[in-house]
Specification:
- By secondary structure, the protein is mainly alpha-helical.
- About 55% of the residues lie in helices and about 5% in strands.
- It has ten helices and four strands.
- The longest helix is centred in the middle third of the chain and has 35 residues, at about 80-115.
- It starts with 8 loop residues before the first helix and ends in a 19-residue tail after the last helix.
Amino acid sequence: MAVTATIPREEVDGYINAVVGSDSLDEALARFGSIVPSGDLVANVEFARMQMQEYPLRFFATGLRTGPENSLIRKLSTPDEHQAQAVVDSEQMIIALFGLLAVDMLDAMRTAYGPIANRADWFASDLIDAHVVARVAVALERYEAGDFDSAVSILAPRMERVVRRMAAAVGLVVTRLPRANGQPGGAKGLGEILAAMKGHLPIDSYRYLWTLLCEPTAQNLRNRAGHGLADVFSQVEAALLIQSLCHVRVLHVASSPSAASPKSPREP
């Protein structure tokens, strides 16, 4: 299903001007990273409930979600399952729409401040090590050269490395031991690690990273890049990965789970 929408240019410019100012690229990147593109979880849950009330027949029958290689990803039978998926669908749509803005914002930053790749060292932090920063610089160069597929291929696995470092920083175990049945140990997957980060991250940030990187019925960029499930990645997808890295750069990670975080509609 395709939907066409028109956003007035002045509204788009308003969003861009909120990020790109007359100061420095560092400050613009920080403002860019402060955005949570998936929106507010409470509002997304409320929207899903409203949709189920207004269009009950849409959620009455069993729903099936398929994925790459004609795989069956999810079967939706109960009202709770339908609602949880409706929330993911809202997040996925909002992220996709923001991705269009992210492209314009990055273009405006380059026009105002010069090549973003020249300030790749801004990304350096306790969670983003020097090896990642070096690859981010290359990814930004590829992005600014129009090679968006290469930018995604570089950034997606580095985002997993950053999340793994984030989890280790709050004391979570990021590896598994060999099992008695002979299954070897090794590094835990991104989905398992990010799920364990719930409560250590602001809930909206957690949902954003999960939907963008791991959720099989949404963008799922890390898994699609890592398993060769996309023919080519787009400029929007590359811009979203750049934004997600900016978001992690300015993110506060709690050392212990927050009891105040609202419950997610689905436990990944």
